[in-house]
Design goal:
Number of domains: 2
Order of helices and strands: EHEEHHEEEHEEEEHEEEEHE
Distance between the termini: 19 Å
Radius of gyration: 19 Å
Strand content: 25-35%
CATH architecture of the largest domain: Alpha-Beta Barrel
CATH class of the largest domain: Alpha Beta
Number of helices: 6
Number of strands: 15
Helix content: 25-40%
Largest sheet: 9 strands, mixed
Mean pLDDT: 96
Structural class: alpha+beta
Shape: globular
Length: 255
C-alpha cells in the first residue's frame, strides 16, 4: 500500500487531522495500465462534494497529477482518493492511497438486509461506520455484503455497491436515498448500445423474485446476486452476460 498527501509522503502531522476528524469525502477506482473507467465522473464527484462540504472547488488537474505521482510505476492498482479541508488551508487537501488491483467476484453474491440509511446518502463521504458495521455483521452471518432497505422494505443500495434489477430488456435501479455510483452511471451510458433501457423507481424487498436477474455493481465490476436473506434468487445467465458485456464495453480514460 502507498499513501501520499498532496503529492508527497505523509507526515505524522498531516495524518493527525485525518485520524481525528471524520469529515471528508472520497472516490474509489480501479486503474489498469494507467487508465480508469469514468475518470470524468470521478473528478466531477470530487468537485461537487468539495463544493457541498467545504464551500470551495477542487482543481481536477491537481487530482490527476496526484494520481500519477501516487501510482508511479504501479500502473494497475485499486485507488482511493480522499479529500479533506485542513483548518489552516485555503484549498482542499487530497490523499491518494493505492493497493493491489481487485476484480469483481464471479460467484453469485449473498446479501443480508438491514434497515439503514446513510447520512447524506448522495455523497461518498468518509463517515462509513454504519457500512462497515453492517458489512461485518453480514459476513459473520455467512453473507457477502449488506443491503440497505427502508423501514417499509424499499431497497436503497448495497454497503459498497449499487444494486440493479433486470426486467426483460430493462434494468431498474432503486429510487431512494443512495449514491449514484460511477459504474452505475457508466452502465447507463452503454446500455442503449445493447438495447437495454434503464429506469429508476421504488423496488420493494418483497418484489425481488419478480426480476429475471439481480446484480450488484461498483468500481470492481458487476456480479450476480443469488440470495437475499433466506430467499434464493435465480440467476439468468443470458441476462448477466449482457450486463457483463456492457461493463466490459465501458471505455478507459488515461489519467
Amino acid at each position: 500500500m502507498r499513501v501520499e498527501i498532496d503529492g508527497a509522503p505523509p507526515t505524522a502531522a498531516a495524518l493527525h487531522q485525518r485520524a481525528l476528524v471524520n469529515y471528508g469525502h472520497f472516490t474509489s477506482m480501479q486503474v489498469r495500465d494507467g487508465r480508469v473507467r469514468g475518470l470524468d465522473l470521478h473528478l466531477h464527484r470530487l468537485r461537487t462534494a468539495s463544493t457541498e462540504l467545504f464551500g470551495t472547488d477542487l482543481d481536477p488537474n491537481r487530482v490527476r497529477g496526484y494520481l500519477r505521482t501516487a501510482l508511479g510505476a504501479d500502473t494497475s492498482a485499486s485507488v482511493r482518493v480522499d479529500v479533506f479541508m485542513l483548518p489552516t488551508a485555503g484549498v482542499p487537501s487530497v490523499m491518494v492511497t493505492t493497493r493491489p488491483p481487485v476484480d469483481a467476484p464471479t460467484d453469485p453474491q449473498r446479501l443480508r438486509t438491514f434497515v439503514y440509511q446513510r447520512t447524506l446518502a448522495h455523497l461518498k463521504h468518509v463517515g462509513t461506520f454504519g457500512q462497515i458495521y453492517y458489512g461485518a455483521l453480514a459476513e459473520r452471518e455467512g453473507f457477502d455484503e449488506a443491503l440497505f432497505v427502508g423501514p417499509a422494505g424499499a431497497i436503497f443500495e448495497g454497503g459498497i455497491t449499487n444494486i440493479g434489477f433486470v426486467e426483460r430488456d430493462q434494468v431498474v435501479w432503486p429510487e431512494g436515498p443512495m449514491l449514484a455510483g460511477v459504474t452505475m452511471q457508466l452502465l447507463d451510458r452503454v446500455f442503449p448500445v445493447y438495447g437495454v433501457k434503464t429506469s429508476h423507481h421504488v423496488v420493494q424487498l418483497s418484489d425481488v423474485d419478480y426480476f429475471s436477474a439481480v446484480f450488484v455493481a461498483n468500481s470492481t465490476g458487476v456480479a450476480p446476486v443469488g440470495q437475499v436473506d433466506d430467499r434464493a434468487l435465480s440467476v439468468d445467465e443470458t441476462a448477466m452476460e449482457l450486463i457483463r458485456r456492457a461493463f466490459r464495453a465501458i471505455p478507459w480514460d488515461t489519467i
